[in-house]
Amino acid sequence: QVQLREHGGGSVQAEGSLRLSCEASRHITCMAWFRGPPGPQREGLASICTGSATTYIGDSVKGRFTASRDNAANTLYLEMNRLEPEDTNMYYCAVTGFLIDPVSRLRAGAYEYWGPGTSVTVSS
Predict the structure, then answer these.
(1) 4, 10, 43, 44: which has the highest count of C-beta atoms within 10 A?
(2) φ, ψ at 48 (rounded to 5°)
(3) Which of 57, 89, 63, 61 is nearest to 76 (CA)?
(4) Spatial distance between the Cα atoms of 54 and 36, rounded to a whole number of angstroms
(5) E-strand spans in the chain?
(6) pLDDT tens for residues 1-50?
(7) Which tens digit of pLDDT belongs to each residue from 91-107?
C-alpha cells in the first residue's frame, strides 16, 4: 500500500499559476497527475518514472504545465502556468510500483494507487 498526500489546489484567476505536490509514503516507480472524474477517460497530465529520463506531458497542457520529481522526498510536482477556466477540475495524483510502458504512462488504468484529489478553480 502507498498513501498519497496532495497539496496546492485552490482558486486562481485566469493567466495565474498554481503548483501541486503529491507526496508518497514510500518510494514508488511511476508517479503521475490526472484530472477529471474517475474512470479510464480521466485525463493524464504528467508522468515521471524513476529510471526514465523522460517526463510525459499531456498534449492539452503542453507549453503551460511542467512536472518535476524529488525522489529523495518521494514527491511529484505539477507546475501549472497560464491557467484557463477550462482547467477547473479535480486533480489527482496516481502512482504504481511498475515501470509503465511509455505509451501507457498517461493512461489512468496503468496506475494502482490514487490520492483523494485536490480542487483547482480558475476564474475568468
Answers:
(1) 44
(2) -135, 130
(3) 57
(4) 24
(5) 4-7, 10-13, 18-24, 30-35, 43-49, 55-57, 65-70, 75-80, 89-96, 113-114, 118-123
(6) 999 999 999 999 999 999 999 999 999 999 999 999 988 889 999 999 99
(7) 999 999 999 999 999 99
Q: How far is CA 38 from CA 94, 108, 123, in A?
A: 12, 9, 24
Contact 4, 95 (CB under 8 A): yes
C-alpha span between 4 and 16 (Å, rounded) = 26
Cell of 121: 478553480
- Block residue for cell numbers 497527475: 33
| CA nearest to 28, candidates 50, 52, 43 | 50
Cell of 94: 496516481
Q: Rounded to whole angstroms, how far apart are CA atoms 92 and 124?
A: 23
From 100, 98, 90, select the one nearest 33 (Cα to Cα).
90
- Grid coordinates representing 96 are 504504481
CA angle 89, 93, 98 (to 5 degrees): 145
